[in-house]
Amino acid sequence: FEALNETFENRGRRSAEQVEVLRALWTRPVVDFRGAFHRISHAGLNPMPIQRPIPIWFGVGSRDHAVPPEAALRRIARLADGWSPNLTPDAPGQAIVARVHGYAREAGRDPARLPLEGRIRLAGQGPDGWAKQVDGWKALGATSVIAEPRGAGLSFPDGHLDVLRRFKETVKEAS
């Protein structure tokens, strides 16, 4: 943030405005925009993206902060085309997903049209744990999962590729 001359504290408001700017640039040939953080005067992209609009997915949460701020959850519900939370598919995770769905309804959006991508850390558990996590994410309505081999002390790239292959086989067998 410092290198970009930006502050960490306003990142949420700034990112909400950036979503508005990106969607305008990706869908209109000429954009005039004046916001709190960005100004665009009669500019556009050429060539325009083939896919319009380009879906914008939000990540939320961190290993250090398991419960994301309510403002971030509201922003996801209001603006995101999909989201990938850094949580586990347990009761607290289910409560967070339910809050996002509630906020989406408040914003006039159908929660079923807000895809959820689960995150599974492969470190510290084996195939049984992975299968349980996949089932948990399915129960929460996830449309896909990310398998993260980081933190498992694996060699790169061979160890990572090996554990990802084992994860793929586990998921295939569980399906």
Structure description:
The chain has helices spanning 11-27, 70-79, 91-106, 127-139, 158-174; strands at residues 31-34, 39-43, 57-60, 82-85, 117-121, 144-148. The chain is α/β, with parallel strands linked by helices. The chain has two domains: 1-54, no CATH class; 57-174, Alpha-Beta Barrel (TIM Barrel). The strands form three sheets. It has a two-stranded antiparallel sheet with strand order 1-2. Strands 3-4 form a two-stranded parallel sheet. Strands 5-6 form a two-stranded parallel ribbon. Helix 4 links the parallel strand 5 and strand 6. Helix 4 packs across helix 5 (158-174). The longest helix has 17 residues, at 11-27. The protein is globular and about 55 Å long. The N and C termini lie far apart (42 Å). 17% of the residues are buried. The model has no long low-confidence stretch (mean pLDDT 92).
